[in-house]
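4.2 Preliminary Data

To establish feasibility before requesting continued support, the project team ran the inverse folding procedure on a target of 321 residues. The structure was first converted into the token representation described in Section 3, and no sequence information of any kind was made available to the design step. The complete token record follows.
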């Protein structure tokens, strides 16, 4: 047993590297480095290199990602903008997807995800990664500032709705986003998501999204936006803990930013309006008053079958190069 004071000291970096050069070590040198040095190296890397370094082995995934069992990309990898900026140098997510491609996975620029290579046609696999699409009408649809869906996500939602209709989900579903609950709509079972979005000190919005399958199994959403405008010291504030960051834009559809559109609301000749590009309908609800505007936005997300159709594509983010 080693006596106190005779415990083995960690080897210096020079000794570790020398042993590696002399062939005394067969393991990669980086595994012999003290953990504090690993952190120092990590701090110097670019965001894309940080992710690749973290994903290089389970050891680094465990020490560098505090929630390694549910690794989530943050910061520059979140596709939060309302357009897909595919070739922009600042789009870290795109760079990462291209870096992570391998013999099994290929980048899809429509979903901003990696898919198994067998999900692409031979022709599309020959395209550059940021021009490759898994299917013609694929794309990302934003339903709420906190919820964006690829077409594969949409298929999961359709399955949840069908399970709920069969009673298989026992009315309490566990969706992968953990943001929905089941409710009964005029068209049968639906999924509901609720959110609160703070615009600034005086404007906040309650969002209630209902997803359901209409006649002929078309997926639709009815979203009620209740916009509270309370100037003055007695303003009402949201007590919903799931507030998003201030100044978040809300898009009624990919082509209409709701707050910008609301300013034109006085000029609405009728109590409804619609987007000329995707036919999303906006209805001004009768409960609207001076300090509160309530708008119902109805969107069609295409048929529930595979592959994506033009209705889905009309609701997708626009692509910018
Ligand atoms: Zn795709
Ligand atoms: Zn939300
Ligand atoms: Zn539109």
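Position-by-position output of the design step:
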């Amino acid at each position: 047993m080693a006596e106190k004071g005779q415990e083995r000291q960690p080897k210096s970096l020079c000794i570790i590297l020398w042993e590696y050069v002399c062939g005394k070590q067969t393991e990669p040198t980086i595994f012999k480095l003290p953990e504090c040095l690993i952190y120092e190296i990590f701090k110097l890397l670019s965001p894309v290199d940080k992710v690749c370094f973290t994903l290089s082995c389970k050891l680094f995934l465990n020490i560098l990602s505090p929630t390694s069992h549910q690794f989530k990309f943050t910061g520059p990898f979140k596709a939060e903008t309302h357009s897909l900026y595919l070739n922009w140098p600042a789009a870290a997510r795109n760079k990462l997807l291209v870096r992570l491609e391998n013999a099994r996975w290929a980048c899809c620029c429509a979903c901003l995800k990696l898919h198994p290579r067998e999900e692409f046609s031979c022709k599309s696999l020959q395209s550059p990664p940021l021009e490759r699409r898994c299917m013609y009408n694929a794309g990302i649809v934003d339903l709420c500032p906190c919820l964006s869906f690829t077409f594969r996500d949409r298929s999961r939602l359709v399955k949840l709705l069908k399970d709920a209709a069969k009673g298989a989900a026992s009315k309490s579903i566990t969706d992968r986003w953990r943001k929905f609950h089941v409710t009964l709509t005029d068209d049968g079972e639906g999924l509901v998501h609720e959110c609160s979005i703070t615009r600034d000190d005086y404007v906040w919005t309650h969002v209630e999204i209902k997803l359901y399958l209409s006649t002929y199994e078309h997926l639709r959403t009815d979203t009620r936006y209740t916009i509270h405008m309370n100037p003055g010291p007695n303003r009402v504030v949201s007590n919903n803990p799931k507030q998003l960051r201030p100044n978040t834009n809300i898009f009624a559809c990919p082509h209409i930013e709701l707050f910008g559109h609301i300013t034109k609301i006085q000029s609405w000749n009728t109590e409804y309006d619609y987007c000329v590009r995707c036919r999303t309908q906006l209805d001004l609800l009768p409960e609207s008053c001076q300090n509160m505007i309530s708008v119902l936005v109805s969107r069609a997300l295409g048929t529930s079958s595979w592959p994506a159709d033009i209705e889905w594509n009309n609701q997708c983010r626009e692509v910018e190069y």
